[in-house]
Amino acid sequence: MMITGIGIKMNFLGCGEYKDNTWVPIKEILKVETHDDYLTRNLPKIFESSCCEWYLWEHDLTKKENIEVLLSIDESSFPVGTNAGEIWYEGYYPIVWTNLDYNMIYSNMGHNDLNYGNTTYNSIKEYTFENEYI
């Protein structure tokens, strides 16, 4: 089944429309929500990300039965952001998730200043892009 347009955000990603973001790209502490997924099984419970621009989406992914959040911004990161009007002071922000109806993982990582020096972040990218099943 081909999903196009708004169906990608609503059905495939499950997140709905873009709602907000932080700027400039900064490092944050990420929390592993489950170690049951192959992608997260060897990650520490929390780790520092590389510099990223972070996004907020329309839908609360925790209320979607077909979505499993793998990584989120840890509460120790708040406030998140540096520019006035683009700073988050609280909330739940999923960063990596999978849609159980499809063979997919969405990663909100990568919108950054091309700082790939973080080894945990690089291991996620390597698994994602070098995995024979993806």
What keyword list fits this structure?
5-stranded antiparallel beta sheet, single chain, 134 residues, alpha+beta, Rossmann fold
Give a description of the structure.
- This protein is of the alpha+beta class.
- The protein has a single domain, classed as Class I glutamine amidotransferase (GATase) domain (Rossmann fold, 3-Layer(aba) Sandwich).
- The protein is 14% helix and 23% strand.
- It is built from 2 helices and 7 strands.
- The strands form 2 sheets. It has a 5-stranded antiparallel sheet with strand order 3-2-5-6-7, with no helix packed on it. The chain has a two-stranded antiparallel ribbon with strand order 1-4.
- The protein is globular.
Q: How many distinct domains?
A: 1
CATH homologous superfamily caption: Class I glutamine amidotransferase (GATase) domain
Number of helices: 2
Largest sheet: 5 strands, antiparallel
The top level CATH class name: Alpha Beta
Estimate the helix proportion, in percent: 10-25%
Poorly predicted regions are: 128-134
- CATH T-level topology: Rossmann fold
What is the percentage of strand-forming residues?
Answer: 15-25%
Rg on CA atoms, Å:
15 Å
Count the strands? Answer: 7
Distance between the termini: 18 Å
H/E element order: HEEEEEEEH
Named CATH architecture? 3-Layer(aba) Sandwich
Structural class: alpha+beta
Shape: globular
The average pLDDT value, as a whole number, equals: 80
Query: Reading side by side through the largest sheet, how are the strands ordered?
Result: 3-2-5-6-7
